[in-house]
From TrEMBL:
Organism encoding this protein: Methylorubrum salsuginis
Lineage summary: Bacteria, Pseudomonadati, Pseudomonadota, Alphaproteobacteria, Hyphomicrobiales
Listed PANTHER family: NADH DEHYDROGENASE [UBIQUINONE] 1 ALPHA SUBCOMPLEX ASSEMBLY FACTOR 3, NUCLEAR PROTEIN E3-3
Name under which the protein is recorded: Uncharacterized conserved protein, contains Mth938-like domain
InterPro entries named in the record: MTH938-like_sf, NDUFAF3/AAMDC
Length: 128
């Protein structure tokens, strides 16, 4: 992240996504190159670059905030990718719904639901 985020790739607070593409995102008057997690606690850098690398471990931060999340939007990049059943079941057991879609659609949907104060989070893979 650039323009002054905290160490470790974290910007506290809830922010809308202003733009995406060119390998990153703009939000909260900042930009970040790479994938991100939009959580109730703030925006986190996310080391996932491909949908097949999404695992329970890569979503540990989401699971840690499960009390504040009812729906996780997963932006799988330029293409829609079906996420494996064990991952879906783990999120369901934590009380978190899952909807996977292209990153652009996930970013737009996140903005709408967050503006409605819904308990939503997003895991977004950066697109070129």
């Amino acid at each position: 992240m650039s323009a002054g985020p905290r160490p470790g790739g974290f910007l506290p607070g809830r922010h809308g996504i202003d733009a995406y593409g060119n390998g990153g995102f703009r939000f909260g008057d900042m930009s970040h190159r790479g994938s991100i997690l939009m959580l109730p606690s703030g925006v986190h850098a996310w080391a996932v670059e491909r949908a097949d690398a999404i695992t329970t471990a890569s979503l540990a931060a989401v699971l840690a905030e499960r009390e504040a999340i009812e729906l996780l939007l997963v932006g799988t990049g330029a293409d829609i990718v079906f996420l494996p059943d064990p991952l879906r079941q783990r999120l369901k057991a934590a009380g978190i719904g899952l909807d996977a879609m292209q990153t652009g659609a996930a970013a737009r949907t996140y903005n709408i639901l967050a503006a409605e104060n819904r308990k939503v989070a997003a895991a977004l893979i950066a697109v070129p």
